[in-house]
Amino acid sequence: MSAEVGVAGENAVPEAHWGGYTWAEAAGGRAVAQVLLDSALPQLDHLFDYAVPAEFAETIRVGQRVRVPFRSQSRKTFGYVIGFVERSEFGGELSPIADIVTEVPQLTPDVWRLARAVADRAGGSAGDILRLAIPTRQVRVEKKHLAALAEAAAAETPVANRPAQAPDPEPAAATSAPPETKIAAELVKGARLSHTASHSPERLHTGEWVGGWAAQLARVALGVFELGRSVILVTPDYRDLDQLRDALTALGHPDFVRVDSRQSNSERYASFLRALDPEPRVILGNRSAVYAPAFNLGAVVTWDDGDPVLAEPLAPYVHARDSALIRAEQSGAGLLFAGHVRSAEVQRLVDLGYVLAQVHPPRRTRVFHADAARAPDAFAGRVPEFAAQTIREGLKTGPVLVQVATPGYAPVAVCGDCGDLARCGSCAGPIGFRVVGRASCRWCGEYANAWRCGSCDSARLQERGMGSARTVEQFERQFAGVRVLLSDGEHPRERVDARPALVVATRGAEPLAAGGYRAVVLLDAERLLGIETLRAGEDCMRWWENAAALAAPDGMCLMASGGGPVVTAFVTGRSDEWLRGELRDRHALRYPPAVRVASVSGGSEEVARALETIAEIPGVDYLGPAPVPQQIGGNAGPGGGSRQAGGLSAHLVRAIVRFDYGHGAEVAKRLRGALVADAAGSNSRTRGRTPGRARPEALRLRFDDRGVFDG
């Protein structure tokens, strides 16, 4: 027997437990169950009617996972019970439900509503969202959990003797409460807030150091919990989760529920069952935590929503921020977007008045620009003299952080004879040096052992630029006798102690220092601002603010070089003003987030048919279709299509559809219809295709694609 499939009734839920799950609706004599199939096929993304056999009439519940026949009695698939009806509109004989996989109602009504709404907005399937929300069943874990519930139910305090739920705070009491308590009180009333966190780490009474933001959000979460409500905390990666874990534990609440991609299947399912229990929980996790079941949800808190890691890489590619907005609206829960700087999306919501910004400005690290202290005739290289002096001064009393743009040894390789940029012979990606003397493609990873220049046929490669490893090598010579540490994707460090050390880190990989860094030096501003992406400016603002926030309260941050509006806004602390100006420009040019976008890719005929379906919707325009650009990280095109030289997919095109938010539902509905029609009609066009492989020219949709305008 598999880890998921059990015998119906084998793990019966205790009666007291059913009483807690008041939403787990029974059939109540209704003979028809409506089931959502667990299928990736878009044409199956709707409810199917199945007969409820007499043997399941008393045990079947809404939200249960069941096994049902599909297309024939001998072929079975899985699905979730969404509801019951007296009779079916289907004219034929209904197939009966074959089995109840688990009597635990895994799918709550609020998570189902969320999955349906999120999928519809993104032109996707609800089943794809549910696969993120509901982990694979683990029978032993489930038995243990149900046994614990039965034991607790037997010793349960009668309802009449339980303490009453904490009431909302009175205005007079809230006035003198700590800021986090006030925020929590507003959230449980349904407020939608944007909070800019103060800089510098904070020491917990356990002796651990965490980012000040983690301590602040932990206090907010516990404030919501103490009011008798559940709270969901969503962060980009495991390092953020670890800091929140430490903060919650130090504040006396180690009994939180963690939803983490690094958990084992058993740990993940155990956490899911605890979140499913009918009692308030503090739930923290990565992007999929926004779909966790939560009893009496009071708030959804998202940290650093501008981080692209919060965008789901699997279809339908929904960002956790959008899911949080929908969940808060559906449930009436509060919503908090927190970060060291706002994302453009949150700034847009603030400008619309949909989200309220905090009134009091946060405490911020002192920021300087090296040019302000440089003599007019002084040499200004990658590490100007003032930056080197700042590093030396900081190292006298503690660690110093230096942020660099790229990992590896040298990010760029050029022809040693003609100077042309070296390109990979397999995928046309740029070649660089991850380690000394070993060139490889930065896209596909293939080594450039047999590389030859396409212009002069030379085989001589030359290093250009400074990666993190090469910077460490330079600093070991420049600051002799100093401990130099490296932190990047291949050499991650989560924490460093308070001893003097020069820490070189790539953006996003900066370790937390005990007590904070004495100085934070930001290199390579020009290179970061030159990244060919629409969001280079806001990404830089987020990278720099997050790095500056790691400084000690009396530390400083130095911008070593660079200029222009983004650098000026960062140095002066006026990121909000810059974001408003950026949004005005994007509104005039119809770029996101001023408008929504959807990429429609596939064969030229398939894309043309899809675009015809939205031609009459007002306020909709599109760019292209044009050949699909090379996708970083592989040589195959979408669905396995071949590549042409120069980084384009043979026979595949892409159009970028732009539309106003008010027309989003209609655009998604029509493009989804085109996708379903293309998938349903594909059988006649796939003769001779290798079984199990998708048609290369099959239609593909991606709404709100962050990288659709990247170079």
Automatic annotation (TrEMBL):
This is Primosomal protein N' 3' DNA-binding domain-containing protein. The keyword Acyltransferase does not apply. Pfam families: PriA_3primeBD. Residues 157-179 are annotated as: Disordered. The lineage of its organism: Bacteria, Bacillati, Actinomycetota, Actinomycetes, Micrococcales. It comes from the Bacteria. Keywords: ATP-binding, DNA-binding, Nucleotide-binding. Residues 163-179 have a biased composition (Low complexity). Residues 34-135 form the Primosomal protein N' 3' DNA-binding domain. One of its GO terms (biological process) is double-strand break repair. The keyword Lipid biosynthesis does not apply.
